[in-house]
Design goal:
The protein has two domains: 249 residues, Naphthalene 1,2-dioxygenase Alpha Subunit, Chain A, domain 1 (Alpha-Beta Complex); 112 residues, Rieske Iron-sulfur Protein, CATH 2.102.10.10. By secondary structure, it is α+β, with helices and mostly antiparallel strands. It is built from eight helices and 17 strands. It is 22% helix and 27% strand. The strands form three sheets. It has a seven-stranded antiparallel β-sheet with strand order 1-10-9-4-3-2-5, with no helix packed on it. The chain binds FE2/S2 (inorganic) cluster and fe (ii) ion.
Length: 382
């Protein structure tokens, strides 16, 4: 497992050439891409340190002084709101020797490094460096390295890359496609954090895999999603690995009945209105007529990842007298369906690490998986 990359990238690209064939002739991605530590390292450089990443909601740090620390691909950074109410992102790495200056989340007036007490303001600027009286170094304009940051519909996007593509260009394909996900009219009811023993891509693929839904999820929500007559998958494939589709699907509850108020922007539409979308590389969005879910998948190692699930509702849902009880039941439902998926992706991970694994043919219902993985291979094997 996690063997070093033993074949050159060019050969790997060749090995994955079948992924690019027309869908009826295409096969899934070779196992190395899910099992190799070297490829995980390449992904970090070429994906996670390169592109825009959705890392949270501005409502998670609502007040001046609020901060939270995040770990992405083994890098630690801070999201903090300063006195002026602006959100900044900066590496959690002291300018002196690199110690993490803060952990967890909370509210602070400043950040004092625990090692030699260099002090930083809420924007990550160095304020004082005690006893550095003889240094010739210019410490006046020092700061912890800043990350690019944009807030879009309440979502915080950052980029480790000091010169990423413009955020407007990045988000443009989703501006109209994500009309269904009016998250600025909603707030977070809960954020679930679930570790899964699989490569992060297996979960990203699983989250757009409509093929497995009536089979694996027959005991939870599988029966509430309607197949179309032709048994096709009418997904729109967006530039740079994005995707979106609408479907008829009942709300997420054990009976398929709606337990929360209708989303206000769906007024006049039926209760089985539902849609899904994905923003490359690792954000997946899901809407039922009474709820929104946002799923982020973060790599921990080649064979381990963590899923962050944001459960969101419009403001009026929180005023329901039975909201807390309904939320508990709904969380139980989501936990059950994630457990169903987790059992499969863990099994997939075993296969990816086996010398006997041969990638099998793709179904026409796996068009979005092919789309995402083509973009992935373009980036990683370029
Ligand atoms: S490492 Fe932070 S003050 Fe020395
Ligand atoms: Fe699933």
């Amino acid at each position: 497992m996690n063997a070093p990359l033993s074949i050159p990238l060019l050969d790997l690209r060749e090995k994955a050439a079948h992924v690019y064939r027309d869908l009826p002739e295409a096969n899934h991605v070779p196992g190395e891409f899910y099992a190799s530590a070297s490829i995980a390292k390449l992904e970090k450089e070429r994906i996670f340190l390169e592109t825009w990443l959705c890392v949270g909601r501005s409502e998670e740090i609502p007040l001046p002084g609020d901060y939270t620390t995040c770990q992405i691909a083994d890098e630690s950074f801070v999201l903090a709101r300063n006195e002026a109410g602006e959100i900044n992102a900066f590496m959690n790495m002291c300018v002196h020797r690199g110690v993490a200056v803060v952990s967890g989340k909370g509210n602070a007036q400043d950040f004092s490094c625990p090692y030699h007490a260099w002090l930083y303001d809420l924007s990550g600027n160095l304020v004082t460096a005690p006893r550095m009286t003889q240094t010739k170094a210019e410490l006046k304009n020092c700061r912890m390295r800043r990350l690019k940051l944009e807030v879009w519909r309440g979502w915080i996007f950052v980029s480790f890359n000091p010169e990423p593509m413009s955020f407007d260009d990045f988000i443009a394909p989703y501006e109209t496609e994500l009309w269904w996900f009016q998250t600025d009219q909603c707030r977070i009811a809960d954020k679930m954090v679930i570790e899964v023993d699989c490569n992060w891509k297996l979960l990203v693929e699983n989250l757009v895999d409509v093929y497995h839904v009536p089979v694996l999820h027959k005991g939870t929500f599988g029966g509430f999603v309607k197949k179309n007559k032709a048994d096709t998958f009418d997904v729109r494939l967006l530039p740079r690995g994005g995707w979106a589709y609408e479907q008829k699907a009942r709300p997420h509850s054990s009976t398929g009945a709606r337990t929360f108020p209708m989303l206000p922007w769906l007024k006049g539409m039926s209760e089985d209105t539902s849609c899904r979308a994905g923003i490359y590389p690792n954000l997946s969005l899901s809407m039922r007529s009474d709820s929104l879910r946002m799923w982020q998948v973060w790599p921990i190692s080649a064979s381990k990842c963590v899923l962050h699930v944001y459960l969101m509702f419009p403001h009026e849902a929180f005023d329901q007298p039975d909201f807390s009880a309904n939320l508990e039941e709904y969380k139980g439902f989501i936990t059950d369906l994630v457990a169903e998926d987790a059992s499969m992706v863990v099994s997939l991970q075993h296969a990816m690490q086996s010398p006997f694994y041969e990638p099998g043919p793709m179904s026409h219902l796996e068009a979005a998986i092919q789309h995402i993985m083509k973009k992935y291979l373009d980036v990683v094997t370029a």
